[in-house]
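Re: weekly structure request thread

Next one in the queue (483 aa):
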Amino acid sequence: MRILLTGATGYIGRRLLPVLLEGGYEVICCVRNAATFEVPEGWEAQVDIFQVDFLNPVPVEVAPLEFDVAFYLIHSLSAAIDDFKSLEEQAATNFKAYLEATSCQQIIYLTGIVNSDELSSHLESRLRVEQILEGGKVPLTALRAGIIIGSGSASFEIIRDLVEKLPVMIAPRWLSTRCQPIAIRDVIKFLTGVMLKEQYYGKNFDIGAEDILTYREMLLGYAMARGLKRYVYIVPVMTPRLSSYWLYFVTSTTYELAVNLVNSMKIDVICRPNNLAQELGIDLVPYKKAVALAFDKIQQNMVVSSWKDSLVSSSAKASLNRYIEVPEYGCFKDEQIIPIAHNTPDAVWQNIVSIGGERGWYYANWLWKLRGYLDKLVGGIGLRRGRTHPTRIHDGDALDFWRVLIADEDKQRLLLYAEMKLPGEAWLEFRIQHKDGKAYLRQKATFRPFGVAGRLYWGAIQPLHYFVFRGMVDNVERFREEQ
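Done, posted below.
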């Protein structure tokens, strides 16, 4: 069987792909930027990459046309506040038109539960996408889910942030809203279980575990699973705007995602009864066990995917190709080159790819944290995205308020692009270079200013750069794990 997988770099897509490959299927991975997609090692023969942006009409003359099932896992929830509905409708329309020219027999769409009389903008958009897809010639199977519990999911990471950081929460009234969460492993089982089964063509199903919980109960359930004592007090005076700011500053979410989540969290999300789980032989995981399983993955550094690694987690442009070539002219630069004397080159490279997240930035971490806090204040993403794995990094990953453009182990080069709020564009590059039988660590910061504001910004922080960048390159070269 041949499968088309959209959203292959997203949270669900990255979880679904290895399951499909292990099942022996050939998979066409649809990505906006092929340079940031890494085929799972050992599965190269089963994977084809199709670089496509469904916000534009698909060039059928160069697109793959022979496949049996198409997974539609595209969303724009965290990319915008006002126009995500038009973006989602546009992508769905182009996707449907593309499939008309293919041999596809079934579309499988993961969407949201839409049983309330009054829907949020997010859920209205999800329903509209479903209507567009089912209006085509290819039969649609829609799986409607609420909160997905799994390591790296946006919902789970928000719950985790709140409970881990706040012993006492003064919370908005939407924490009394009820929902029916589902474990990520069960979502994957549903997605694969309905493939090419004609009895599910043209139908939609709500999927969720048996627990029906308020958001407050989910927070306290997480605390119990973690052995933490937490207190949650609900007040009626917190407006949606204040609630959005509350999520934005306490958790790693973007402001756009916080606004859209708060608007959705005011509505009960409860499943309609169905027998799909029994028919597919799925033993649904209860909420507390799902939390424990997710946290086990985090503790073992086995998080397969994170919502933060999707480009929409930063509201960035769809493609980062144009940033891979670092500009040389009209830029301010800080370049440090030092000999590698206290470590082996391979050990220094490991220090480089472990930068950020829990380890920090090797020098003046309090200044990096302050910069992240200031970024949050002006609507940026701050440092709270962290990193998905403490020592492994890939092209396209989120890294605090940077995006990984290149992580080349063979050439020992790491190139980062800044996604913080700046009056310009910024790159940070690390390289290990060899010359005359000696190894050197090269660290280069490049800033391309936008007008006078950008030049003033660089001038204001240049004195700090002298100390921070020099201290950072020295410590990257010297750092040993036993320290």
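The chain has 13 helices and 19 strands. The two ends are 51 Å apart (CA to CA).
Next request, please.
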